[in-house]
Amino acid sequence: MFQLKPINENAIPKALEKAERYRLLGEPFEAESICLDILAIEPDHQQALLTLLLSLTDQFPHRLADCFSRAQAVVRKLHDEYERLYYAGIICERRGNAHLDRHEPGSGTVAFEWLHQAMARYEEAEACRPPDNDDAILRWNTCARTLANHHLQPPVPGSFEPITME
């Protein structure tokens, strides 16, 4: 319908600032759009990829399936092993929190599984973290507190009973 207009390569730093501002304002779709404009002219721009990934995870409460798969694709484009592991943990953690916030039957168990996966990614990231970078530890602790505060437990084998319609 419309042909998108390219941005100027020299405008990338200001565009990134604007994308981060939109994320902070709770407007992740706008941040995503700006990142896509940046990546259209510089496909490997690592900061734009990180901001895109975070803007996608910001949208999990409303567009989980689409944004989750797209965030996973973005994390594979990150060059740094630590960042790939750390942000894979962020994706899992935010997916777990999105399930937790739904308050649906079984959402606590699903949230537990995703938070547990996040903790595993954070432990992997911790093992290869840069000196004086405890971000993975901070996120792991947040997941542990979320599990404890919400009394989340792993699924009990054999406890699933399908709902029957009579």
Description:
The chain has 166 residues and is mainly alpha-helical. Helices cover 69% and strands 0% of the residues. It folds into 2 domains: 7-77; 80-153. The protein is built from 7 helices and no strands. Helix 1 runs parallel beside helix 3, helix 4 (60-75) runs antiparallel to helix 5 and helix 5 packs antiparallel against helix 6 (107-127). The model has no long low-confidence stretch (mean pLDDT 94).
Keyword list:
166 residues, mainly alpha, 2 domains, 7 helices
Rg on CA atoms, Å: 18 Å
- The arrangement of helices and strands along the chain is HHHHHHH
Overall helicity: 55-70%
Strand content: under 5%
Looking at the structure, what is the overall shape?
globular
Helix-strand makeup class: mainly alpha
Total tally of structural domains: 2
Give the terminus-to-terminus CA distance. 49 Å
Ranges where pLDDT stays below 50 over 5 or more residues in a row are none
Largest sheet: none
Compute the number of helices.
Answer: 7
Mean pLDDT across every amino acid position: 94
* E-strand count: 0
What's the short story on this structure?
The protein is mainly α and 166 residues long.
